[in-house]
Structures are given as C-alpha cells and as structure tokens.
Amino acid sequence: MIKVLIADNHPIVRLGVKQVLESSSDIEVISDVSTTTELFEALKSTTPDVVILEMDIPEINGIATLRKLKMDYPDIKTLMYSGQSEDVYALSTIRAGAFGYLSKTADVDYIISAVKKVSEGNMFITNELAQRLAFDEGTQKPRRFFRKLSSREVEVLKLLASGKRNKEVAEGLNLNEKTVSTYKARLMKKLNVDNLVDLLQQAKALELY
C-alpha cells in the first residue's frame, strides 16, 4: 500500500485528489494539510511514502518546503502539484529534489500513475512536458533561458518579480542582502539583460508573475 500525504491550501482540491487516489486499491491517503506548519506537524506522527505538495502552499514557498522535506525526511518522495507554468517550474522543482511535477491542468488519470511512479523512486513528468522541454531549444522564446537557472535563482527571480525588495527577498529565503545582490547580478547575466526593468520583463515572459 502506497501511503500519501496531500499538502494543498484548497479543501476542494485536497478532497478531489484524495478521492481520485483512493479509487486505486493500492493507494491510501493517510493525511491532508493546508499549510507548511501543518505539513511538518503531521510528519512528526505519520510517515507517508509520497507527499503531494502544492507549489504555492502558504507560509513557506514550495521549493523551500521541498528542500526542508529533503533535508529532514530524505526517504519521503515529493511530487509537486501546481497550476504554475510547467515549462518554468518542473525542472526547477526536480533540481531541488522533487521526484515529479504534475500540472493541475493534467488529465486526472495522471495523478495515480504519477504517485505510483514516484513511490518507486522514479522520476515523473508528463509526456507533453517532456516533448516541450525536448523540442523548444531552437526557438527564441525567453523560456529557453530558464534551463540555465538554478532552483534558487528561480526563487529569487520570482520574488523580485512579485515586487519584493532585496531585503524582503533575503528575509523570505533566509539569505543576506549581499547574497541576493549576487543572485540578481547572476540572473541578469544569464538572462542577457543589464537592468532590473528588463530582468522583470524576462520574469514576465517566463510566466513568473
């Protein structure tokens, strides 16, 4: 039996995912939570095989939560589940330690197959995403730059794009301001821009807004 914990701040989403998963005879949803505080509290008393983690779960952002999960509970497999752009976030979350990424726009049947694949320690992304990631190299779309970015750089860029100042970014990611400035300079170089306005335009093109 594959034991699953669902972490998503929308009750209807949690209920829907639970019902889909439990239609499979070899999957059991042992807990569902709405915040990162509830997630880590639940993990003190339950041991899921797979955590389905919403990218925008409240309190700590999804990638930071994923890193903490990997550090504190290395045996638990994490499947990221999000309405955010697959092209941007799938690779970022996998680089940060997720075993898979499932878009909320994906077919319902994917949820069961994703959980089963991830529980076995295998990577899961949809066929559509795999094809897009494989075949957009020759285009001039800004997304082609994304693959140059580390998951931490994506986090910094997303916070800058949301209007956060260096100090707020530093506090949100538990970094010092000088490190944030270094990340910003690195992002400008990788995204081939020389000012903050153009950097935020790239963030918009990458669908980070």
Automatic annotation (TrEMBL):
<dbReference type="InterPro" id="IPR001789">
    <property type="entry name" value="Sig_transdc_resp-reg_receiver"/>
</dbReference>
<dbReference type="Pfam" id="PF00072">
    <property type="entry name" value="Response_reg"/>
</dbReference>
<dbReference type="InterPro" id="IPR058245">
    <property type="entry name" value="NreC/VraR/RcsB-like_REC"/>
</dbReference>
<dbReference type="InterPro" id="IPR039420">
    <property type="entry name" value="WalR-like"/>
</dbReference>
<keyword id="KW-0805">Transcription regulation</keyword>
<dbReference type="Pfam" id="PF00196">
    <property type="entry name" value="GerE"/>
</dbReference>
<dbReference type="GO" id="GO:0000160">
    <property type="term" value="P:phosphorelay signal transduction system"/>
</dbReference>
<feature type="domain" description="Response regulatory">
    <location>
        <begin position="3"/>
        <end position="119"/>
    </location>
</feature>
<dbReference type="InterPro" id="IPR016032">
    <property type="entry name" value="Sig_transdc_resp-reg_C-effctor"/>
</dbReference>
<keyword id="KW-0238">DNA-binding</keyword>
<dbReference type="InterPro" id="IPR011006">
    <property type="entry name" value="CheY-like_superfamily"/>
</dbReference>
<dbReference type="GO" id="GO:0006355">
    <property type="term" value="P:regulation of DNA-templated transcription"/>
</dbReference>
<feature type="domain" description="HTH luxR-type">
    <location>
        <begin position="142"/>
        <end position="207"/>
    </location>
</feature>
<keyword id="KW-0597">Phosphoprotein</keyword>
<keyword id="KW-0804">Transcription</keyword>
<dbReference type="InterPro" id="IPR000792">
    <property type="entry name" value="Tscrpt_reg_LuxR_C"/>
</dbReference>
<protein>
    <submittedName>
        <fullName>Two component transcriptional regulator, LuxR family</fullName>
    </submittedName>
</protein>
<dbReference type="GO" id="GO:0003677">
    <property type="term" value="F:DNA binding"/>
</dbReference>
